[in-house]
Amino acid sequence: MIEWSETDELIRESIREFIDKEIRPRTDELESGQLPPYDIIRKLFASFGVGEIAREGFDQLIEHEKRKADTGSGAGGSAAGSGGGSGFTLAGQETMALIAISELAGVSLGILASAGVSLGLAAGTIMSKGTLEQKQRWVPELLTFDKVGAWAITEPEAGSDAFGGMTTTVRRDGDDYILTGHKTFITNGPYADTIVVYAKLDTGDGTPIRDRKVLAFVLDAGMDGLERSTPFKKMGLGSSPTGELSFDHVRLGRDRLLGETEGTAKDESADSGRESARANFTAERIGVAALSLGIINECHRLCVDYAASRTLWGQEIGRLQLIQAKLAEMEIARLNVQNMVFRTVEKLRAGTQPSLAEASAMKLYSSRAATEVAMEAVQLFGGNGYMTEYRVEQLARDAKGLMIYAGSNEVQTTHIAKGLLGR
Amino acid sequence: MTNIVVLVKQVPDTYSERKLTETDHTLDRESADAVLDEINERAVEEALKIKEAGEGEVTVLCVGPDRATDAIRKALSMGADKAVHVSDEALHGSDLVATSRVIAAAIGKLDSVDLVIAGNEASDGRGGAVPAVVAELLGLPQLTHAHHLAVEGSTVKVDRETADEGITHLEANLPALVSVTEKINEPRYPSFKGIMAAKKKPVETYTVADLGIDAGEVGLTNAWSAVQSASPKPPRQAGERVEDDGEGGTKIAEYLVGQKLV
């Protein structure tokens, strides 16, 4: 049986202390977008040694690859560990990361979105698909958060149909590539220093745009032709700056093409872009379960306290059965989602990970549960719940994002069905 | 190599409601969350900084019930190397003289201690005398109320800050005892690695008998003082309202002078 261990609980306590001192007093500034989250993320990474741990893991992987290259077996990204395609291994401490993100989700999902995208998606993709030189060039500063990363795949006309609908294009120009197009809903986009961009290769041979090969490139802020928008106003995840990126004939050397290869033309599924994006899906969806758990835990805690202290007609509202029903539903959601997270821990400890279909099921269920719990929390708090001061309304707005982000829940449904029907 | 001992105490969280038990007027440890004292966190931080700047070993020393292991664990998670825990039923209700004797005896069990760092007071009892009594018992120079601390070779330099005397610069040869105030630093959070490593760090446990102290010298019945009664803090009085009819500034100044605040 899996339970949070004593060490897990100490980590939880330590993270909570950080949250209470460093994040809660600044929630209004963060949520209004007045204060970008990056200094707090840097302090978080430095305080808990996250950057240091990641850096050590990075150095080991690089050493490993160098040795492999020396023995002639070729350098590749196959050293990816149990982190779910992100290229980082959690080294037996799977619960540590899950606890940390779930605690943070209860106070600011936006901070996590910003940190997760930079570390998990931007650095993760470079780690799993980049050459040794590319890893060494971009990853270390992302790990310590000295640089902010973004991962740009979504376009105005290409959300869940990311590859098919994609129109951002690269054309060969001598040894270079020229990149043109737009990306939107890009987490960290307005402030990103290091940007992984997916684009379709136009070879001019008349291949329909839907079928063209997808390549991934790494861009740096300040390159000619790269524009970053100001942050969008969003329903939730206010602490995380989201924006647009546009590329007007950005010249890219081959050293910016991830893996420095376009893949083999024969095998369509092997083109580097599609594969690297898919590898992230499972990890991202497992992550959503942990985030949902954090939101549920926090709503649960706030509601139990409120039900026990708020009085109406001379008694605590917790004595009213309609309130009890809400608390009971919250408890059921908490148990179910926590069990899903525990199952993930169990799989990671056994050296495997949930299948894409299973991860999709967890994502769908947990995001829906978190949204329902948070909306019911607003209801339980009544007029107070509608006020920002009582915090549950932010959790409800944040939770809704989880039903859309990381593949809308409708797309998750199709992935679950594909898993059942074998496509 | 500087061997540093940090005195740490587990106290009720200052954010929770703290009270005394009704039976013997000792601290009601069950009524509030127990945490490592905030000033002690700073004492640990200061010791770690000295260790990191050169070479050394940091031992935390705690006198308290079994559950004080949580406070010890936190100090170890921050980076202290090992711990000594004196835990004995007989210690319940000990006054600060008896407590200081126990601490001094426990320090005596350790090899070559160069520096003892304590908080200037604990946030629960607030007696503020333990560091001085321990220094006296061990025959160490005492440099109390430090808001800055530096070890240079075999000397320790301290900026001592008190409300009455302002800032005094003190210097002593090691070994010495320093007590620090809450202004001295911002303590670190235990890192993930620190938390994982803490589990494996050695914690030595002593009873009073192990320290060669007779149980008849400690505890509530042997304390030099006794609490006869206790009552909760009275609710706060309403403040004084000053209407500004052009003389507001003067009135505020007069009020502050009247309260001896300026």
UniProtKB/TrEMBL annotation, chain A:
GO terms for molecular function: acyl-CoA dehydrogenase activity; flavin adenine dinucleotide binding. Its cofactor is FAD. Residues 93-144 form the Acyl-CoA dehydrogenase/oxidase N-terminal domain. Transmembrane segments: none annotated. InterPro entries: Acyl-CoA_DH_CS (IPR006089), Acyl-CoA_Oxase/DH_mid-dom (IPR006091), Acyl-CoA_Oxase/DH_mid-dom_sf (IPR046373), AcylCo_DH-like_C (IPR036250), AcylCo_DH/oxidase_C (IPR009075), AcylCoA_DH/ox_N (IPR013786), AcylCoA_DH/ox_N_sf (IPR037069), AcylCoA_DH/oxidase_NM_dom_sf (IPR009100). Residues 272-421 form the Acyl-CoA dehydrogenase/oxidase C-terminal domain. Gene3D superfamilies: Acyl-CoA dehydrogenase/oxidase, N-terminal domain (1.10.540.10), Butyryl-CoA Dehydrogenase, subunit A, domain 2 (2.40.110.10), Butyryl-CoA Dehydrogenase, subunit A, domain 3 (1.20.140.10). Residues 150-250 form the Acyl-CoA oxidase/dehydrogenase middle domain. Pfam families: Acyl-CoA_dh_1 (PF00441), Acyl-CoA_dh_M (PF02770), Acyl-CoA_dh_N (PF02771). It comes from the Bacteria. Keywords: FAD, Flavoprotein, Oxidoreductase. Belongs to the acyl-CoA dehydrogenase family. This is Acyl-CoA dehydrogenase.
TrEMBL record, chain B:
Its cofactor is FAD. Residues 227-249 are annotated as: Disordered. InterPro entries: ETF_a/b_N, ETF_b, ETF_beta_N, Rossmann-like_a/b/a_fold. Residues 24-215 form the Electron transfer flavoprotein alpha/beta-subunit N-terminal domain. One of its GO terms (molecular function) is electron transfer activity. Transmembrane segments: none annotated. One of its GO terms (cellular component) is cytosol. The keyword NAD does not apply. SMART domains: ETF (SM00893). The keyword Secreted does not apply. Keywords: Electron transport, Transport. It comes from the Bacteria. The electron transfer flavoprotein serves as a specific electron acceptor for other dehydrogenases. It transfers the electrons to the main respiratory chain via ETF-ubiquinone oxidoreductase (ETF dehydrogenase). Heterodimer of an alpha and a beta subunit. Belongs to the ETF beta-subunit/FixA family. This is Electron transfer flavoprotein subunit beta. It comes from Haloechinothrix alba.
